Please model this.
Amino acid sequence: MCNLVITMSKLMNIYKKLLKHFGRQHWWPAETRFEVIVGAILTQNTSWKNVEKAILNLKKEKMLNNKKIANVDIRKLESLIQPSGFYKQKSERLKKFCKYLDRNYNSDLNKFFNRNTDEIRNELLSLNGIGNETADSILLYAGEKLKFVVDAYTVRMCERTGIKNAKKYDELQSFFEKNLPKNIKLYKEFHALIVELGKNFCRRKPECDGCPLKDVCKYGSSSHN
Ligand code: SF4
Model:
């Protein structure tokens, strides 16, 4: 078997083990594409629970709407998203994104997403406060684009299991994209499952006992445990 096939089957093996253990994650937890985008911007450096509170505030005020956020008073936005932390910075970023979408696409997400993926990605990355992970979360979960999302949990899992040692975002992303079947549902589920693994077992201080990857993990099967 060639290396590509071996790596592909190792990755799929990891995916199947995670899926069997955690079940389907149904990501992204949102009712609309716009809600996905808002969540992706607000989730930076905070827990999802805090993001949910902020989104609930926006919903209660009927503010979960691109044009409304683009035009709202920044102080009001700050108070609504306060639970998500770093609320001054995040309200500025969110408002900037909404204004951009309104000015250039008349707040129409179909127009925004109905283009070449790299073009959209570059545009997202040019906006203040939107980095690789946020841009790709938006592309995959809101735009249904074939982009694998990499985060700190992904880096850690790859390093510890021995599947791939890479710290650079692009390198790790292309590793997954080259070695996985080109399937959006699979990309969505796999990323969500890696997050679940990182939260429950593969933490900074790993809890390898009971980890679904223990038998295929270099670190878990070594003397560290
Ligand atoms: S076995 Fe341990 S180190 Fe390996 S993935 Fe699981 S928790 Fe992480």
